[in-house]
Design a protein that fits this description.
Two copies of one chain form a homodimer.
Chain A: E1 5-11, H1 22-37, E2 46-50, H2 54-58, H3 63-71, E3 76-81, H4 86-99, E4 105-112, H5 119-126, H6 142-157, H7 161-176, H8 189-193, E5 197-199, E6 202-203, E7 213-220, E8 233-241, H9 256-269, E9 278-280, H10 286-295, H11 304-309, H12 326-330, H13 334-350, E10 363-370, E11 375-382
Parallel strand pairs in A: 2-3, 2-4, 9-10
Antiparallel strand pairs in A: 1-7, 4-7, 5-6, 8-11, 10-11
């Protein structure tokens, strides 16, 4: 991939933001990113908006011109949807648009407004990302689908509920150090194990929350646009897909889409999994972080438990994962999540991650999953 | 833009297709396009799905992996939404992905399943494309918004209801010659003028219908993939935006997004409006075809009526417009419309447009609008 730089980032608080609308959140993150980049709206050639369920939650689609209209510009603007991987997908397509020569400087903003709906209603809305004909129609939900995968994996590889709980504890710990995170409460392994069952073996604290929030990144091919800051490059961005429904998969202990996207991304960036210093992965449920640890090549198949038990993915471990707090601790406003992951990696590469800063970061990776693994986008960033 | 060729096209019947699901329609068009191109699913590197309201009408988002899953492939797949300009936008982004080097051969499929909902429900769903805060919330609908624009235009430039009716008559005439069109009934100017008022001055026959349908195009940079057929190139694809709401526009007699997109497209293709031999434009309401005739540079501002009265845009006129029947006659399954426009232009360039064939077509143009002009994509094709 040609040189594509991150010119600026902006992010809102994640959480239950009842006083802010979808539009306000998208605009807040966009303006913060423009300010961070030292750019004005007129410097932007294209706008990519990541969102999954605004039509259902806010009665609003056509989010491209929603954003350009508020910014007072008339450039190309599109809404990208790939369920919970909408953010990562928008980053990929924005990078493609720059590489194609169509655009030079692009705003990518992800937003979701979820907490206005009741829990049953938002759970049903999220199931639009599953297979309507064989999953959601029959009452399945994503906790149940991931619980099925967790059951198969745990039976085959000996992973325990305590291992899963350890992931949630780590991610809540990291979120406490992130001012924008949804949750700032510490939890213990016992808290997780004693929390209410959602879909066995997954407990309440194995599940990421319903959040509002927005995040924005400005990408550019103009090196002179990036001033007075560390030059972070998009080294790779690749995605792959798998069947919408679990029943069409050959293996429930891994996401094929993630393995394919990762393989291509490593090739594009010309590096190996062992070169990655920090990763943001899609822990919508704790079991999903286990899958990511293996699908991304960080651990051999069935061996993620060793990394968990040895605390290798904590802030002081050899490969910190989800320093932002992940979806579990930082929150999961769906369209914003993939962009938030990129922002965290950019901050780690810039050395601006505050109390969560990892030393000597050269390469960082994001892993953004849609549905039960039907889409996965893997991007690699470096300095 | 580098050489991007059309490798194949596929389209379903447009209409009230109660026996076919969203998924069946998307798959039918995709398989027809693959067959036309002489390709198998394994030849496809990326899938771009254009759709506006499947989450509302079919409880289904995440249409990228819906299509790849059905085709049995695991490549990049994304859902693009830009209201009624979703199809044209997907074409543009697919072309960008090829130009960026990310993909070589891409399937672009647009689909919409609309007739399962009641008229009030589908009208409300379509209003997700307007500004929720200042338009749809207050009960506006698109017929009303276009009627406002028509009123201003007709008052300023002397266009008559009979002129508008003449457009509907032309488009129904062309649709009669198109086997896939929603409508095959001839209408007269009196039929239009005597039809029920929907939002004055627009009558029932000034309005495009609610339709089901799907359309697919395969684009490729591999010239050896296109065998035994006329090589049609994508010469330009450009889009622009304007405010979501009419109240933020300075001029209601033209679409700024269309003027900007057209200007850029002509520059990319290095041709002038007078070079275009045939155009498919977004006649969601008859007044919208009038705007297109001027915004695309075919007629001076306020002068479209001359072209209408002189029958210059009929099949035998100097610049045939909407030979497919347009949205009015061919139907308007939202996500499919922008792709259907491209297919009609490709057929005209190939010389395979049957009874609708225009002689000596060298350049064709598509004009696809979202909302009340908040998005417009203009693409130019040539041989």
């Amino acid at each position: 991939m040609n040189k594509i730089l991150v010119a600026g980032t902006g992010i809102t608080k994640f959480g239950e933001l009842w006083s802010k609308s979808l539009r306000q959140l998208a605009l807040e993150a966009s303006l913060l990113a423009l300010k961070d980049a030292g750019l004005s709206p007129d410097d932007i050639d294209g706008v990519y908006v990541a969102n999954m369920i605004a039509p259902t939650t806010s009665g609003q689609s056509h989010l491209g011109p929603l954003v350009t209209g508020e910014l007072g510009i008339n450039v190309q603007a599109v809404h990208i949807e790939a369920a919970c991987a909408s953010g990562g997908t928008a980053i990929q397509l924005a990078a493609e648009s720059i590489k194609s020569g169509q655009n030079k400087t692009v705003l990518v903003v992800g937003v979701e407004k979820m907490t206005d709906l009741s829990t049953p209603d938002i759970t049903a809305a999220l199931m639009q990302a599953s297979d309507d004909e064989v999953e959601s129609f029959y009452g399945a939900n994503f906790a149940g689908l991931y619980a099925l995968m967790a059951t198969v994996y745990m039976d085959k590889y000996g992973l325990t509920q305590k291992d899963l709980a350890t992931i949630a504890v780590k991610n809540h710990h990291n979120a406490r150090l992130n001012p924008n995170a949804h949750f700032h409460n510490s939890i213990t392994v016992d808290d997780v194990l004693n929390s209410a069952p959602v879909a066995s073996p997954l407990k309440l604290f194995d599940c990421s929350p319903i959040s509002d929030g927005a995040a924005a990144v400005i990408l550019t091919s103009e090196t002179n646009v990036v001033k007075n800051k560390v030059k972070v490059s998009v080294l790779a961005s690749s995605s792959a897909t798998d069947s919408l429904s679990l029943c069409n998969r050959q293996d429930l202990t891994s996401l094929k889409s993630a393995r394919l996207a990762a393989k291509n991304a490593y090739q594009q960036a010309n590096i190996k999994p062992k070169d990655i210093n920090v990763a943001e992965v899609h822990d919508c449920f704790t079991i999903a972080e286990v899958f990511a640890m293996e699908d991304l090549g960080f651990y051999e198949k069935g061996m993620a438990f060793k990394g968990i038990r040895n605390a290798e993915t904590t802030l002081s471990g050899k490969l910190p994962i989800n320093t932002s707090g992940g979806l579990k601790g930082c929150g999961h406003p769906v369209g914003a999540t993939g962009i938030k992951q990129v922002i965290e990696i950019v901050h780690q590469l810039e050395g601006t991650a505050g109390d969560r800063q990892i030393p000597n970061v050269r390469y960082g990776l994001t892993h953004n999953v849609g549905g039960s693994g039907s889409t996965c986008v893997v991007s690699i960033f470096g300095i």
